[in-house]
Amino acid sequence: MSREEYYFHTEKMTVGYDGKPLIRDIEMCVKRGQILTLIGPNGGGKSTILKSITRQMKTIGGTVYLDGRTLQELSGRELSQKLAVVLTERMRSELMTCGDVVATGRYPYTGALGILTEEDWAKVREAMDLVHALELQERDFHAISDGQRQRVLLARAICQEPEIIVLDEPTSYLDIRHKLELLTILKQMVAQRRVAVVMSLHELDLAQKISDFVLCVHGEYIDRAGTPEEVFTSEYICRLYGITRGSYDALFGSVEMERAPGAPQVFVICGGGSGIPVFRALQRKGIPFAAGVLHRSDIDYEAARALASAVIAEEAYEPVGGARVQEALEVLRSCRKAICCLDSFGTMNAGNRLLRDEARRLGLLEDAAV
Amino acid sequence: MNKKAYRRYAVSFAALALLLAALLVWNINSGSVSLSVREIFHILVFRGGDETAYNIIWQIRLPRILAAIILGGALSVSGFLLQTFFGNPIAGPFVLGISSGSKLVVALVMVYLLGRSVTISSAGMIAAAFVGAMISMGFVLLFSRKISRMSMLVISGVMIGYICSAITDFVVTFADDSNIVNLHNWSLGSFSGMTWGNVTVMAAVVGLASAVTFLMSKPISAYQLGEVYAQNLGVNIRLFRVALILLSSVLSACVTAFAGPISFVGIAVPHLVKSMLKTAKPLLVIPACFLGGAVFCLFCDLIARTMFAPTELSISSVTAVFGAPVVIYIMVRRRKTV
Description:
The structure holds two protein chains of two kinds.
Chain A (H helix, E strand, L loop, with lengths): L7 E10 L2 E7 L2 E2 L4 E5 L6 H8 L7 E6 L2 E2 L5 H7 E4 L11 H6 L14 H13 L15 H14 L4 E5 L7 H18 L2 E5 L3 H7 L2 E6 L2 E6 L1 H4 L2 H8 L5 E3 L4 E3 L9 E4 L6 H10 L3 E7 L3 H9 L2 E5 L7 H13 L2 E4 L9 H12 L3 E2 L4
Parallel strand pairs in A: 4-9, 4-10, 7-8, 8-9, 14-15, 14-17, 15-16, 17-18
Antiparallel strand pairs in A: 1-2, 1-3, 1-5, 5-6, 10-11, 12-13
Helix pairs in contact in A: 4-5, 5-6, 10-11, 12-13
Chain B lengths: L2 H27 L7 H10 L4 H36 L11 H18 L6 H25 L3 H25 L5 H9 L7 H20 L1 H7 L3 H6 L4 H23 L5 H13 L4 H25 L8 H23 L1
């Protein structure tokens, strides 16, 4: 695809403070109706990039194109009709209602004295309706919650009728419900109004699910760019964020704490998700454990890999074989306790029944409650 | 959009206009020479009557009243601009030391010229005051880059003010004795001794600066949100900041040149006006500030003139009595919300 088809793209953009380059040769691009998300560790330069593409900071090198023109050649008014922002900077809003705040988005379209017409107010109401904030119109902007504030600020950006919206960590400080709400609204708006979105996000799980493209900001160059499927592998995310204590599971987008150190003290016989609560309980108490015998396709297997000191695994869709059971027994004998989370055994994991019986014979078996 | 809000604005402006009219009449009426309303009416409308009374009204009271109106308005608008610029509700030409900077340069120029028996024109005074205002403003801007806390900014402004006042006192003390009394009165702040010439010049300067300020309502409203948001809305920040500094300095310099430094009007009036209108929209606040400042200064000048007549109080003593509590109130309330 040729570059011209993108609504927004950069060519070898270098950004930084006071003429000192921070990140070099950034190539980013987004079409209308798409979401580009920047991820990366704190202090990595996500905000610096966003400030540079919104012209709050001068770029050090390269070119930024918006709608086929360079960022430099656009006048302040032209840019304000194409690009809106939702920033982390606190908005000063003395004696302003939420409606007033949203109305500031009409600024690029009003006359010399900035007086809003009835049509402008209709657009304000429409934007507030879109983010489900119409009932906040007469409320003081200071007196609303963080979640409401972000929605009002988004309405303000929508009201500006931009072709691209730049958001800097729009979901920070929001609880999970409001995070989802905000991103759902954003996704809807992108689809309905064919707006391009460039934003930074902290929540990897959400970034993975909402983005069309992901850009990983780390170090002197853009570390990696691509679709979420290309970027979100466990190994890569751990490397990007320098995760050494704990791990990141790309399939579920979940974060696991560091496993308890040392040789396994407890053996967990499990499968089909029955082991995960036990793993977590043991991990919280700092007790190292082993898990088995698990099929590689089992959901418990993924969690065990992150949390257990030893995992005895069988190939997917194969019956649990004698060799695996022997291996598990060896580990089991070195433990001081065993827990069996299963109460029925199918033909494929009949081996685990042997394991449980042996544990009972050795007097190690306890109920699933830890 | 909102009928209730519109009614509030209309009522507020009407109230301010009525207050202004009432104070105007009251001010013309009061003074060491008492005149009946009928006499005053006769003098004002038919330009007749007793010659002494005529002169008192036309040469003393009216210019003074007009000066209080114009300069009071200028001070409030200047205060509003500075508060917007620094994003600080207790910024104003007096607390930031801008008035005192003007005072210092004007005193230096006056002492120098008086020593050589040269009289200085109104425009010259404004120019000198403007230079002083810009010097103080330069220092305040320098400090505001290093410190972002609003209390520290004000403290540095107050310190600049003290330094300028100290040097002014020093200069005035050691200047030749002729006209010193005048200079001394002026350096404390007073609307007395205004001529029609003064009034014409200040009306032109303040009128122009206020009109330009009003026409800048739109970018000011964007700037109120914070610099980054204003920038995104298409405001040329650098140009805008320069314009704001020049306008606020011209307005406050004009006040200082004619009436000396006057405290607290620049903080108290914008705050009172915003509370009354329940909005900070510049389109409404700027004209309301001008009216409010005129009312506030007329009222304070009335007290300064008549309270202990024939002795006159300095205008700053009176404005401080009414203005300082407002400032304290703002600070206390701020502490709660931030």
